[in-house]
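Before drawing any conclusions, I looked closely at one protein, both as residues and as discrete backbone shape codes, quoted below without any editing:
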Amino acid sequence: MAKIFRAALRFFFHHLYHGLSWAYDLVAWVVSLGRWRDWGRATLPHMARTRVLELGFGPGHLQRALTEAGFQAIGLDESRQMCRRAATLLRQNGFSPSLARGYAQAMPFADESFESLVATFPSEYIFAPETLSEAWRVLKDGGRLVVAISALPGGSSLPARAAAWLFRVTGQGSDLTEEVERQVKAFFATSRFRVSVMRVEIRQSTVFLIVGEKSTSAEMLTD
């Protein structure tokens, strides 16, 4: 039964990101009680310098926030529908989109092109060895990989408790135990990143961030 449920969730999320992309913002707003975009913006203070590549940019809200914050934002996403939606959103707000369609496992960019890479609530592609290898390749020395890996909605109201339950069931929200944190750090460290796991409190919620720093001049350690 659990396997069937997980398969059904993967099917739903795939279509929500593609053929049903028009409903993505509504679904995200409902399940997060309107906090989804704030959770994504929790990554902003952890960027290194200015040139940023966002993996899986979706409707483009973080692309807009990055540009407004003064970053040179570039996006990569495999969904044709999301590419169109994000480009429309950016143009409607007076920004020129710089978006590419492709996969994180084979990024169409030159070596050491970016100071930062960011992904918010990505699917399992973020844990592919090819993704981390590509992230290392396109980042400059001292660059950062910043991943909002999950979130836990807080609050004691019935909607808040329901949102927290839904996030746990779908795998989008779970607390990071010491053992899980150790495993996450060890996995990212295999790709030579110096790794930190952070908890950021936003609007009665906890966002869990993975921040990996590329350094070719020092021994790689986990914090």
The chain has a mean pLDDT of 80.
